[in-house]
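Cross-posting from the modeling subforum.

Setting up a comparison between two proteins and wanted a second pair of eyes on the formatting. Protein 1 (sequence, then structure tokens):
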Amino acid sequence: MKILKIDGLCKNYPSFRLQDVSFSIDSGTIMGFIGRNGAGKTTTLKAIMNMVHAEKGKIEFFGLDMKEHEHEIKQRVGYAGGIIDYYKKKKISKLLEITARFYDNWDADVCQRYMKLFSLDENKTPSQLSEGMKVKLSLVMALSHRAELLILDEPTSGLDPISRDELLEIFLYLKSKGVSILFSTHITSDLDKCADDISYIRGGRIIYTGSIAGFTGSETLEEVMLRQEKEAFREKLDI
């Protein structure tokens, strides 16, 4: 089953365009979303969640059209778009209480398990957290309503290597329970450890979507990406 399907997604800005972005994710798989800064990763993820409005394209979750079933879909999807940077002086316990009101399936016990796992103190405020701990707090909010699909924008950003490895272990555990994950990252070694598939975006266009093995061959993901980006840069220089 295609748990997420994007077809022909387009978004126009004065200096940037998403152009016919299309890819899909199978149930119970992990897809990495890669590309250099400014390639369109965050814009794509926000368009998928209807946080920015695309001019064209069709988005389906669980076989349901996003435009017609947005509320139902968002009850089943966990999204984290980086660090928590709102209500910086509110206690984390209050932020969790507010967030829980938006989800029918919010599980307080699961929330507390992740709070403990990530060593987060609910009596602190976001302003008292390091950048890495803010990322962990955003993940707690995404993981606590038993989502069937997680969409995460740079979830390992700001985390130390040990915390990154622990998070990837959580991803693999969730995958074993049937949860699908789409996450963007610049750290290609993270994808080598946990991802089944990748989608690679450059200049607002998807240039590859499919298995990692089908993309890399005998090279590492980092080697292939660096080589392709270097070739694209040389073409711009016309050398």
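Protein 2 (same layout):
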Amino acid sequence: MQVLEVSNLTKRYPAFLLDSVSFSLEKGHIMGFIGRNGAGKTTTLKSIFNLVHPDSGEVRCFGLEMRENEREVKQRVGFAGGAVDYYKHKKIRDIIDVTRSFYANWDESEYRHYLSLFSLDESKTPLQLSEGMRVKLSLTLSLSHHAELLILDEPTSGLDPVSRAELLDVFLYLKNRGVSILFSTHITTDLEKCADDIAYIAKGRLIHTGSLRAFLEESAANGIGASLEDIMVYHEKERLL
């Protein structure tokens, strides 16, 4: 079952074009989304979630067209776009009081589980948290309403190695429960530990999507490199020549 289908997604800015991006994500799969800064990762993810309004293209979640069924779809999807940077002076418990009211499936026990796992203190405000802890707060908000699909923009950014390892374990745990995850990252070694699939974007165009293992094996056989980091460096240098 295709949980997410992105077809010919296009967004034009004066100095940038997201050019007909298409890919799909299967139920219970983890897809890594990679590319250089400015390649179009955040624009793509925000367009999928309708936080940025694309000029053309279609996004379907669970077989439902996103824009026509946005309220229903967003009950089943968790989105985290990095660290929480809103209501900086509000205590976490007050932010949660507002957030839980939006979700019919909010699970207080799940919320408490991730609050403990990530060592978050409800009495603190986002302003009092480090960048890494604000990322954990953002993830906690996304994970506490039984989302079937997670769309995460740089979720491991700012986390120390131990916290990153804990988060990858959470991803694999959720995958085993049938949750699908699409996340962008610059830390390619994280993807090699947990991702089933890969989507690689460069200058607004998707240049590869599919099985991560097949991508690595094909690249190694062609002498490009055996790791995602090697492969990215090769392709980006080629585009500069």
